[in-house]
Structure prediction request, 568 residues.
Amino acid sequence: MAKILTGKEVAQAVTEEIKIDVEKLKEKNINPKLTIVRVGTNPSDLSYERGALKRMDKCGIKTKVVELNKEITQYEFTEKLKQINKDSNTHGILIFRPLPKQLREEEIKYIISPEKDVDCLSPLNVGKVTEGDVTGFPPATPLAVMEMLKYYEIDFEGKNAVVLGRSLVVGKPMAMLLLKENSTTTICHSRTKNLKRICRKADILVAAVGRARMVNDEYLSKDTVVMDVGINVDDNGNMCGDVDFELCKDKCEAITPVPRGVGSVTTSVLAKHVVKAAKLLNNL
Amino acid sequence: MAKILTGKEVAQAVTEEIKIDVEKLKEKNINPKLTIVRVGTNPSDLSYERGALKRMDKCGIKTKVVELNKEITQYEFTEKLKQINKDSNTHGILIFRPLPKQLREEEIKYIISPEKDVDCLSPLNVGKVTEGDVTGFPPATPLAVMEMLKYYEIDFEGKNAVVLGRSLVVGKPMAMLLLKENSTTTICHSRTKNLKRICRKADILVAAVGRARMVNDEYLSKDTVVMDVGINVDDNGNMCGDVDFELCKDKCEAITPVPRGVGSVTTSVLAKHVVKAAKLLNNL
Prediction:
C-alpha cells in the first residue's frame, strides 16, 4: 500500500504560517485583502469561492467578492478591473476563468495589475515563474503540488520529475518549479510517444491532463510518487482525478487522492500569495 | 558518418525571406532598424557585433551602434536606454550581456521597451515565450536551433527532445519552443543523475552547458540529432562546442559543427526579429 498524501495537514501547516505573517502585517496597519472577480454563477466557481473565503477567513485575510453579470461587456469588465487595480485596500485579485466568450482574456491579462495578480494571469508573472523570480505568483495548483512534496519531505534533488500536460495553468509552471528544485524535468502531452514507458521512469509523476482515471498502474513503478492534479467527474457523477486511484494505490511509493489531495491545498497557496502581495506592495 | 548540419545555408535561406519582407516594408516607408547597445569593448561582443552588422546590411536593415563607456552609471545607462526606447526609427534593441557590475540588469530588463526587445531581456517576453505567444521574441540561440531543425526537416512530432542546460537564454526557452512543436521535452542540468542514459534516449539533443567538449559518444545513440549550442575556447585556444565533434560525428544521425553551426544562424534570427518588431510596431 502506497503512502496516501492528503492535503489537509499541508493546508493546515501553511495556514498556521500565514496567520503569523498576517498578525505581523496587522501590527503595521496592513490588512491583507483578496478581491474575487466572478462573472456569472458557475457552480464550480461558486464551490471554489466558498472554500477560498473560508480559508482567507481562517488566515485573517479580508475578502470581497465582485459578482458580475454574465452578459457584461469587455469595456465594462475592464473598467471594473481597473477600479479594483487602483483600490489600495486590495492586495490580491483572483478572476475566475474561463471567462464568458464576449470577454477577451488576451486583453484582460495585460490589464490586471501584475503586483496583485495572485493567480498568474499576467504574462509578466508567467515570465517571472520561468525566470524563477521569487516576486512572481506561480499558479495555485502547481505551487500546491510543491507545498505537498515539501511537507511530505519528498526528495527533489536530481530526481526524474515527469509532468503530464503542458497547460499554462499547470504543466509549464509545474515544470519550472520542479526545475528550480533541481529535478530533471520532462513534460509529456497528447503527442508523446511511449508515454507509459516515460512515466514509469519518473520518481515524481504529476498528472494534469484533465482526463478521468487516465493514468493506471502501467504508468508507474513501485518507487513513483504520484501527484494527481486532475478534477474530473466520472460517468456516475463521482469526482475523480486523472489517476485511477484504486488501481494505483498498491503499485507506487506514494499517491495523492482526489478529492482530499492537491486540491485541498490550493486555497492556502492563494492566501500565501495575498500575504506576499501585501508585503511587496508595502515594500516589506 | 553523421549528416553535418551547417548553419550557412540556413542563414542564407532565412536572409532571403527577410529581404522580401524588408522590401515590402520599405514600400510602406518603414525602414527596419536595429540599435545595438554595447558597454565597453569586449572582444566577443565586438565579434558578434561585426557579424550582426553584416547580416543586417545583407537584409537591408539599418543599424546604429551605441557604444557606452564601461564606467557608465546605472542612471546614465537607463536614461540612454529610455531615449532609444522612444526613438521611433529604432524597431529593435540589442543590449550586449553580461553588463559590467555597476549596471543592474534586474532593473534594466524592466526598462527596455518589450516591443523592441528583440533579444528577450524583458520578463514580459520571457512570459510570451512560455505562453507560446507569437508576438514575443524568443532569444536568438534557441530560435536558431529551431530554424536549423526545420530547414533540415528534422521531425519533431512526439520525439524525445533533451535539453542540456536550464539557462534563461537557452535551456528554458529552448524547451518551450520544442514543446510548442510537439516534442516531449526533458530539461537536464548539473544535478541530473544518469545524465548519459537520459541523453541516449534523445531523438534530438541540444547541448547548452558551456563546457568544452563535455558531450562525448556515450551520450548518443545512432539516431540522435545533436544540436551544439556551446561556444567555448579549449586549452589550445581553439573554438569548440559543448560536444566533442570528432568523437561524436560517426556515432549519431546528424550533428552541428562548432564553429559553422548554430552560431551562424543567430544573426539571421535577430534580423527576423527586427523585421517582426517593425511590423508589429506599425500594426502590420
In short: The longest helix of chain A spans residues 8-27. The longest strand of chain A covers residues 33-39.
